[in-house]
């Protein structure tokens, strides 16, 4: 499962109100796709984010979402922040539809005030979702050491509020502190992590710009 898909499953957990279409979710998802390719050794941002993202291996990945990122990065030199902004425009719906097709999300269409149609997605309980929740809980509350993909997932979710409904109220500060710690420290320690960190910094910059106008989910 892609990191971006795991983000969506957490964001649309059926214990909470799903994120608004007008929040910063698309930018976090776009960043997750780019980080996925960095961890896989397919792309690398310039050191310090001062240059365009370089495609190291443009072979098909088997996932259309990732192949589109590779194609965009190869077609025109773009910095990580530019790629995140471009990808965010069309990233969310294909990922949502794919999760629905695999039975991991449920689509709900309803009328609002009897006039307007509204579409929502809800996370469907099952083995894959249960394993994701256990993994996140273990890192945030039980002291488990995260792998690179889990650490990237949590750092990209930091500040979104998406995980709070699955954390006992009395331990939410503890979970928030753990996410903040990961966001501040995980990117160090290896060339791959540092490269992923450059993407993470680009996502954070774009998200902070968006949230000056549009609030994140709480």
From TrEMBL:
InterPro entries: GPP34-like (IPR008628), GPP34-like_sf (IPR038261). It comes from the Bacteria. GO terms for molecular function: phosphatidylinositol-4-phosphate binding. It is found in: Golgi apparatus membrane. Keywords: Golgi apparatus, Lipid-binding, Membrane. GO terms for cellular component: cytoplasm; endomembrane system. It is a peripheral membrane protein. This is Golgi phosphoprotein 3 (GPP34). It comes from Krasilnikoviella flava.
């Amino acid at each position: 499962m892609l990191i971006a898909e795991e983000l969506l499953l957490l964001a649309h957990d059926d214990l909470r109100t799903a994120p608004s279409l007008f929040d910063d979710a698309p930018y976090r998802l776009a960043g997750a796709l780019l980080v996925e390719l960095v961890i896989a050794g397919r792309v690398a941002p310039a050191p310090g984010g001062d240059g365009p993202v370089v495609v190291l291996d443009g072979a098909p990945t088997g996932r259309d979402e990732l192949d589109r990122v590779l194609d965009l990065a190869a077609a025109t030199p773009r910095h990580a922040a530019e790629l995140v902004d471009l990808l965010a425009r069309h990233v969310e719906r294909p990922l949502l539809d794919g999760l629905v097709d695999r039975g991991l999300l449920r689509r709900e269409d309803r009328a609002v005030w009897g006039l307007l149609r509204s579409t929502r997605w809800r996370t469907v309980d099952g083995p894959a979702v249960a394993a994701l929740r256990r993994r996140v809980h273990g890192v945030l509350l039980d002291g488990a050491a995260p792998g690179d993909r889990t650490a990237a997932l949590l750092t990209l979710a930091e500040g979104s509020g998406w995980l709070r409904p699955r954390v006992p109220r009395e331990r939410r500060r503890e979970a928030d502190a753990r996410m903040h710690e990961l966001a501040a420290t995980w990117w160090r320690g290896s060339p791959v992590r540092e490269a992923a960190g450059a993407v993470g910094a680009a996502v954070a910059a774009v998200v902070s710009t968006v949230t000056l106008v549009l609030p994140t989910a709480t």
